[in-house]
Amino acid sequence: MSLKSLDPRVTRLNLPEGETPAIEPKPELDQFETYEAFHQKKEGAAHTYVGPVHAPNEDVAFLFAKEQYSRRFACVGLWIARTEHIQVTPYVGDGENVYEMMRVVEEPTERSEEAEAYEIFHLKKRGKAHTHAGRVMATSYQEALQEARNQFGEKGPIVNVWVVKSKHVLQSAEEDKDMWTTIPEKKYREAIAYKVMDKITKYKEEHKTTAL
Amino acid sequence: MNELAIKDLLYKLADDQLILGHRNSEWTGFGPILEEDIAFSSMAQDKIGHSLAFYTLLQELGEAEPDTVAFTRNANQFHNSQLIELPNGEYDFSLIRHFLYDNAEIIRFEMLSQSSYEPIAKVATKLKGEVKYHVLHANTWIKNLGSSTEEAILRLQTSLNEAIPYALGMFEPSKYEQELIEAGVYAGEEAVKAEWLKRIQAVIEKTDLKLPDLNTIEPKLGGRYGEHTEHLQPLLDEMAEVFKIDPTAEW
Questions:
Q1: Nearest-angstrom CA–CA distance, B151 and B208
Q2: Does any CB of chain A come closer than 8 Å to the CB of residue B47?
Q3: B42–A71: do the CB atoms touch at under 8 Å?
Q4: What is the pTM assigned to this prediction?
Q5: Searching chain B, which residue's CA lies closest to the CA of residue A196?
Q6: Which domains does chain A have, with CATH numbers?
Q7: What was the pLDDT predicted at B22?
Q8: Which of A83, A175, B4, B66 sits CB 3.0–4.6 Å from A34 for a disulfide?
Q9: Which chain A residues have a beta carbon less than 8 Å from that of B133?
């Protein structure tokens, strides 16, 4: 059986009839790396984890994240970090504080000569998103975590912490704010914004046929 | 201010955005990777939205309503440059066209946001952030692919050579050019072109691509005056196909 497409773009391609040829398998590891995206919902709000993207590098990851995570929703800024640059603590149960559970201070595997900036993200409850808690200066991930504990680790439950060097976070530029602030509300991009059900119901009413 | 001059400028801006918006939308479902499929579809929505904003300004100046203007004119009534109407070709051509066009479009929006004609200034100020993102999208890909594999570089270079004469046609002056400049509406096509050249050169220099010598190239003119390639009318027919089934339908 052959199907004819109603899409003129498909018809124009003059695709050959019949069986489609088998797809050649790609070489292994033909994959982009993953990057994690953090969005800022409004001016002054903390950056919050919004999801991953697959991309060949940071700049392209930024583009993909912009499309995927800020296309329909209010957003005024975006941060991108390569997944493998993010250090993750163990998870604890809801209501617990991971900083209090870390009894043993791990020895740093790698230490920089001078203190550098690290960004700290807290997960307050399982199922929620990691949110930026602040920035600390340290010479290693382990020291950054200790610093984070001293500076903002005491309040309430924290079930998991992400630590990433600031230099590994690509941050949207202040002068590019207008890329987002032009039209903050993008409802017209969602199917729900097109109110057609009333019209369809009305049409059905008007064209009702009596069952035999 | 001469209203005909303003209308001419608005038609040029609106038609460029509408036709390229439609071309971009032709990538929906056909993109080389899902993310680019989404990006081109998303830019299509932005561009068609921009054309609506400009057609609305035209309506305020006494022209027909936007749907009528967009869907019922023939090719010889459109003021877009010929670059915009060329078929998408393969992804390399669409990308090069997007790069050449949006780097010019952002300059127009920047200039117009300072325009002495307030209605245009307001619209340009509100929308220019979206065009800025379109430029970021184009420049990021050109920088990445333009210095990647031999195949990518060759494809982009071929498309660049093919598109350049049409790109120069974007700057075809209007017959009201001098009037628009003197009235402070915007700095005119020569000024847009000079700035455009600087910006595209800055990106191309970071790649293995070469900008052809522009002095040896004959620009493809006529688009601004309703002369188009054979590709525009079929695009318009397809774009208006549903509209024409019932032009009075309420959507």
A1: 12
A2: no
A3: yes
A4: 0.90
A5: B251
A6: 29-174 (3.10.20.520)
A7: 97
A8: A83
A9: 66, 179
